[in-house]
Structure formats: C-alpha cells, structure tokens
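Annex B. Sample input.
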Amino acid sequence: MAVVVSQGMGMNKKNLRQMLLMVLASVLLALASNFFAEKPLPLFRKLRPAPRAASVSSFSEVDADFVRQFAADSGVVLLDARTVEDFERGHIPGAVSLPISRFNEFFPNRQMRLQAARMLVVYCSGWTCSDSQELALRLFQKGLKALLLYKGGMEDWLEKGNGVAK
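Annex B, continued. Sample output.
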C-alpha cells in the first residue's frame, strides 16, 4: 500500500512540473508575441492617461443677453449650426452659417475667420436641438478652444422678443 502512494505522488509531481512548464512556455510565447506586435501592450512601462476628450459638458453656456451684448463685437463670431434654408429664413443678426450637416464643405471657407476670433458662440434651433453641441465638438477637434454654447438658440432668441436677420 505504501508503494502505491509513493508512485501516485510521483505522478502528481511529474504532472505538476509539466503544467508549470506549459504555463511558463505560454507566458514566454505571449510576451514574445506582444514584443513583436504592431501596437504592443505597455506591460513594463507606465501607462499614460488618455488625453481628456471634449464633451458637451466641456463648453460653457450663454444666454440671449450675453449673445445680444457680444454679437456686435468683432472678436466674437456667432455660428448658426442649422441648415442653410433655416438660416436664410431668419437668423440672429451677425451670425455666420456653418451647418453641421455640411461641415466639411463650409468649414474650410470659414476656418481663417474662426481661428482669428477671440470667442465662438454656437447655436441652433433651440433647447432640444443638439446640432450646436455637435458643431462645438467638431470645432474643438479642429483646434478651436474658445467655444460657448447658446443652447436656447433661435427658440429662446425669439421668445425674448429679439429680431432676426434674413
């Protein structure tokens, strides 16, 4: 009986050794694979935190009084994110059309002016419209930082009794 137990333990040690060798070989193979990968995992160096991406909450909001006060300032550009047709039907005086739906077409022609501005105020149809937020994000991605949102947009502007330009 004692002989059987010692033979059984010998088998377990052999199996354990084989399993450890397989695990070791797997780890070495994984490390080698990572080393030669196009984008290796940073296993032996500090991870750098990802740069903080802009989000809608990153932009300060303004109201109609702010827009009315600064719309005439040459350093402030008021951007209408609505469609060209909506812009032509009526927009906040002094605003520039930059429809989100045609951003790639319109942005190159306005880029110099926007980069020269001290402040950009973006608006769209109203409280439930997200076009101004999307436009602000795209402008931020293009390197423009002085961005403000007028979330009330045309809806709020008209409710406050302000005029429009056509």
